[in-house]
Amino acid sequence: MFGLIFFVALLIGMLIWTRQQKKAADTRPIPSNIDSILNQEVSYFRNLAVDRQKVFTAAVIHFLRVTRIEPVNTTITDTDRLLVAASAVIPIFGFPRWQYRNLTDVLVYEDQFNESFQTEGQHRNLMGMVGSGYMNGKMLLSKTALREGFNNKTDKENTAIHEFVHLLDKADGAADGLPEALLSRQYTIPWLDLIHQQMAAIRNNQSDINPYGLTNKAEFFAVASEYFFERPDLLEQKHPELFGMLEKIFHQYPDYHKPIQPILPK
Fold it and tell me: Which domains does the chain possess?
């Protein structure tokens, strides 16, 4: 009997907590000048057709309403919040109904942190991380890296997009470089073969893809995706097969920002 009472009390407590947390996210004010900030800071948005910009803005607003973006021992601006939201929307823009069901909070740190989420001391070499265990549902980002990802137009890197791609990869239950929630089954083997080929090229110093992609298949997928969204023209020129596969995965062609007809994940 006691066990049943405890279970019911726990369930009620979780429901109340979830409702309060959702309300906190929903009532956070949305910047009034959202379009002008996106146009100024996000080249992906700037290059969209006007009708697609409206869709992008709506997706950004929805993300802000359902996701808490909180500073940790720092301050963040409306622009920082919009950069986080834009980073979330860019990789899912080919999937109009997609929602990050595995994310509730984005925690923004001033700069690098370590695996214990400390901002002082040794081994502070992380700029972004998708939480697991008791941190499940949370993403950690460096404010410095967040801003640099949108300020630098030529480096093929964007930490925030990198971390959101990890979330997409993890949507099928495993962050393994095989985004089964996005990728049609017929492309699974070709994609894995291509990853191995591309990683071999990096290992042999025959590729301009970030060598961090050698860490594992999940990191290769994330760094290749950064390249795809940051410098699609260059990726298509230097790695046309990889570009074509990422185009299939994300259902969009970011060079001209004409999304391919979306195939919604089941």
Answer: 22-250 (3.40.390.10)
